[in-house]
């Protein structure tokens, strides 16, 4: 593992180890020069390959032929910002163990360990790689959409910027509720060389991986109420898992009865979401150019809000989260033409007359039937009387 340059007489030691530390002496005739070699070894847990929320552990060891100094260690992340270890163990000065905070996907890159000592004078930088496979999405992201709109759900991966020792696999699942059965939409795997392969599991959704950007994209061209729920993308690396969820909440509006509003009639407008809202969100109906009396808010944990309308106008339903309007849907209440109102009034009057006529007919028929029944009873009694008092008269 060592070689000497015959011209410069430099000694080169390859694959340096802690045991190589010590005093090296170079002799040439009566000249003798000694050099003390101080060796550092820095290792990182899991070979520097992590998933989000995992905690790295750094081990710094030193060896020298002289008394080991007390080291001052400073860590810098890939953005050249100082990172404070959560704990630092140093019992023998030969071994330092540093535990860091939980990692995020953005922590990937080359880190620096700066080692200092006053006696002997040491000012050494040791670089090491931290690789974090993960998503740019948050752990649970909520996305709101209106019925019949186009929705795109995306998970941005960072594996294109990182060279992995091994490949990893992933899958995309969907379930409408937390307790419901998950439906697998997509299986994919990425090799150590970055090659991607995917297998679609469902024809109900349009799922694709955009390879240049390493983005898993789910497209719903015309979202429906039953498309709502939790969409979860999960990655598996070396029997460890990380996942990112997107909760899709769909909003729709409807009217009962549907259609134009006749004069003097009333209509109920309903605004509804597919799943319960967080405590800081609510639904609100409001009439355009209306007053405070034309505003109706949903209560906490309510999934719908209704408002009664008796006049034509434009109404908007807003989904508001912390005073921020996330999505809105409008419903235009149209007034029915006058002839429709007349038709409805005429139909109502005609219906009333018809009902009254049928009632009168039923009463008259009932009275006639009762009279016929009584007449039949009287005739039956008369025949019975004649039979009981029958006499025979002879002709003289």
Automatic annotation (TrEMBL):
Keywords: Membrane, Transmembrane, Transmembrane helix. InterPro entries: CD4-extracel (IPR015274), Ig-like_dom (IPR007110), Ig-like_dom_sf (IPR036179), Ig-like_fold (IPR013783), Tcell_CD4_Cterm (IPR021963). The chain crosses the membrane at residues 339-369. Residues 264-328 form the Ig-like domain. SUPFAM superfamilies: Immunoglobulin (SSF48726). This is CD4 protein. It comes from Circaetus pectoralis.
